[in-house]
Structures are given as C-alpha cells and as structure tokens.
Design brief:
- The protein is mostly helical.
- α1 crosses α4, α2 runs antiparallel to α3 and α3 runs antiparallel to α4.
- The longest helix is centred in the N-terminal third of the chain and has 24 residues.
- The protein starts with 7 loop residues before the first helix and ends with a helix.
Length: 111
Amino acid sequence: MKPLKSLQPLSKWLLRLAVAVIVYKSFLDYALTFEFKGLLYFLALLIVLLTVLLFIGAFLKGHTLTMVSGLLLFALIVVKLFFVSGFSFNALLAVFPLAALSFYFFASGNS
C-alpha cells in the first residue's frame, strides 16, 4: 500500500491544531492570569506566543518562522521539564507530545 501524499497538508494542519489544543489546555489559563511572579508565568506566556507564531508560520511561504518557533518552543518545553517541573515520569508524559510536535516542526518547516 502506498502512502497518500495528497493528505500530507491536512495532516500538518492537524498536527498544528494538536499543538494549539495542548497549549490551550495546559498553559493558556496560567498565561492569562497576568501575575508577573515567577518563571512559570513567563514560560507559559512565551509558549503561548510561540504557538501562535507556529500557527502563523503556516501561512507564509518561507520556513523560517515555523522552524524558529518550533525550535524555541521545544527548548522552552525542555526548560520547563527540567528546571520548573522537576524531572519526573509524570511531568515527562505531560510535556512529551508537545515537545515532539514542536521538534517535528523545527525539523520539517512548512514542507
């Protein structure tokens, strides 16, 4: 059976939507509290902003915005995992899908 190459654009949009849903459920409430205390607030705010940029990058011809936002999103998730959440198995399970998806967009761009 051959892969359906015509469905690749739809699958990329579904992956972008998955990133947006994960960030919405995990970080948006905390980012909208507007409490400028602590590292977690700024991480949540940057993660939400980078997710918006990742989504906007799909509408541009170049790969740069998608790749940079994917890389920075991946780096912030790793920082959150190791320095804020404390590395535990439950914390890893919570952020691994978002880290994997953001690394995918860093590696592939808009292609």
